[in-house]
Amino acid sequence: MDQSVNLEYPESEAASLKNLVFRQDAAPDLFLGCYLRKEEVQIDSPIPNPNPNNPNSGNTSSSSLELVGYIVSTLVSGDHLTHSSMSSHNPSGDAVCIHSVCVSTAFQRRGVATRMLKEYLQHLQRLNNNMNASTSMNKLKRVLLIAHEHTIGLYAGVGFVLIGQSSVEHGPDPWFEMVYTLDH
C-alpha cells in the first residue's frame, strides 16, 4: 500500500493512506493494480497489459514486482457524485465511484491509464455477469468519476460521457463529472 500513496495526486488532492486502506478493505473487488516485474520497468520498454486477476503470474515473487498504476473505487447510490457519497462506501450501491486512476510519472502518456481503464470496465462487466442470488452486491448500473479538465479526453476515449462541472470541491481546481453506463 505504501507504493500506492507515492502514485497519488498532488498533496492537496491525494487520498490519505487511511482512506486508501479503508477503500481497499471496504471494496477489494473494485481495486485494480498494474504491476511490472522490476526487470521490465524501463522507460523505453513496452508496457504489458495489466493483469488484475493475478499480478504474480509467471511465478514471480511479489517482492520483484513494482506497482506502476492503480484504480481505486467504492460503491455509491444515485446518479451523481457528492462530497458525502465520495467519502463513504455503500455496499448496496449500484454505481461504482472511481476515486483514483494513478500512474507512476515515469509511465504516464504511454497508454497505461487507458489500458487499465479498459480492463477495469471489463472487470466490472464480468462482476455483473457473474452475480447470482447469493451475492450481496447489486447489479452495477454505471461508473462515476470526477476529472480535471485536462483528463476529460482520457476518460472520453474509453467511453465515459461528460455530465458537466461537479459540485464536489477537492483541491484548488474544478472537477467535471463523467459517467460510463454498464451493460445489464
TrEMBL record:
Domain N-acetyltransferase, first and last residues per copy: 20-183
Pfam families linked: Acetyltransf_1
Key words of the record: Acyltransferase, Transferase
Leader sequence segment: none
Annotated region described as Disordered, given as residue ranges: 43-62
Superkingdom, natural source: Eukaryota
Record keyword Ribosomal protein present: no
Acyltransferase found in the keyword field: yes
Alphabetized PANTHER family for the sequence: SEROTONIN N-ACETYLTRANSFERASE (PTHR10908)
Identification of the protein by name: N-acetyltransferase domain-containing protein
Organism (species): Linnemannia gamsii
